[in-house]
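Thread: sanity check for a docking pose with flavin-adenine dinucleotide

Original post by kr_44:
Hi all, I'm comparing my docking run against an independent structure prediction. Below are the sequence and the ligand SMILES. Could someone generate the full complex and paste the C-alpha cells? I mainly care about where the ligand ends up relative to the chain.
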Amino acid sequence: MQFIIRKKENIEDQYHTAAIIGAGPAGITASIYLGRAKIDTVVFERMIPGGYIVATDKIENYPGFPNGISGEELGNLMEKHLKRFDAQVKTEEVTNVELDTYPMKIITEEGSYSAEAIIIATGTKNKRLGVPGEDELVGKGISFCAICDAPFFEGENIVVIGAGNSGVQEALYLSKFAKSIKVLEFLDHPTAEGILLDRLKQKDNLELLVSQRVTSFIGKDRLTGVEVEEKTSKKKKVLKVKGAFIYAGVSPNTDFLKGKLDLDKEGFIKTDEELRTSKEGVFAAGDVRTTSLHQVATAIGDGALAAHNLREYIEEK
Ligand SMILES: Cc1cc2nc3c(=O)[nH]c(=O)nc-3n(C[C@H](O)[C@H](O)[C@H](O)COP(=O)(O)OP(=O)(O)OC[C@H]3O[C@@H](n4cnc5c(N)ncnc54)[C@H](O)[C@@H]3O)c2cc1C
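Reply from moderator J.T.:
Ran it for you. Here is the predicted complex with flavin-adenine dinucleotide included:
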C-alpha cells in the first residue's frame, strides 16, 4: 500500500492518535477501551451519544438488567460512561474521509481532523420501501420511530410494516396509544422472536397479516391509507389508516465511504475476524459491518475488539 506522507508539523487539521466515527454502543465501548489505554481519541457523533437504542422502548436482552431497561436510560448511562474516561466528543457529522494519506483525514461539516487509525461505528438507518407516496408522506403520517411519534396516533388506526423483532417490539409499544394496529409482513411468516409473538397475540388491538406487500401510501397532505397486495392472489386493498411505522430492514450509514473501503453489495463494511477493513489502520465495529446479528450485545463486543486491535496496531507502528 502506498501512503502519501504528510509531515505532522505541516498539518493544519486537529491531530489525534485515534478517531471513532459514531457514538452508538459500538463506538462508545471502543472509546471507553481507548480512554483507559490512554490513547488520545476523538469521537464524532452527528446526533446524541447512545445510537439507535435511544429510539427504542425497552431492551430486555442486554445482560445486567433483568427487568429490562428503556433504550433512553441505557443510552444515557452509556453516555455518562463515555464521558468518565475523558472522551473528546465532537457533535459533528463526518461527511468524508481520506484513507490513503498518512495520517488519515476525517472531514466534517465543521472542519477537518487527522488520525493515525480510525474505527467506523456508524450503524444503520431504517430502509425505505421505495413505493409511491412514501417520500412525500414521511413526517406526515409515515414514521420510523415509535418512541418519537407514538403520542400523535392516540386513538387512531395505524399499520406497522415489518414483523421482525423491531417491528413487533415497536408495535407492542404503539398498542398503548393506537386504537388498532395491523402488523404487515411481506414474508409468509413473521421473523420476530417467539416471546414477542406471544405478546402480540395477547393484545386485542394488534393483528398480524402475512404475505402482504405494501404497494403505495395514499394521502395528499397527510397519510389517509396504505395500499397492500396479497402476494399470492395479487388482490389489492386499501387500509384506511392515519399512521404507518416502517421497520422493514436496515441499510448501513456508509455513503461517505463508497469507493474508499471494501463494502458488500448492500453497503455494509467487510472486515476480517479482527475487525480490520480493507485499509490498514481502519477498523469497523457494530451494525455497520457485514454481520449476521444486529444487537447491542454484538455491537459492544465489536467495539471492545476493534479498540484492542487498534491499540496493538498503534503500538506496532
Ligand atoms: C426499533 C429497534 C429496536 C431494537 N431493539 C433492540 C433490543 O431489544 N435489543 C438489542 O440488543 N438491540 C436492539 N436493537 C438494535 C440495536 O439498537 C443496535 O444493534 C445497536 O444500536 C447497534 O449499535 P451500533 O453502535 O453499531 O450502531 P448505532 O446504535 O446505530 O449507532 C451509530 C451511531 O453513529 C452515528 N453516525 C452515523 N453516521 C455518522 C456520521 N457520518 N458522522 C457521525 N456520526 C454518525 C449515529 O448518529 C449513531 O448514533 C433495536 C433497534 C431498533 C431500530
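Confidence is low (pLDDT under 50) at residues 1-11. Hope that helps with the comparison, let us know if your pose agrees.
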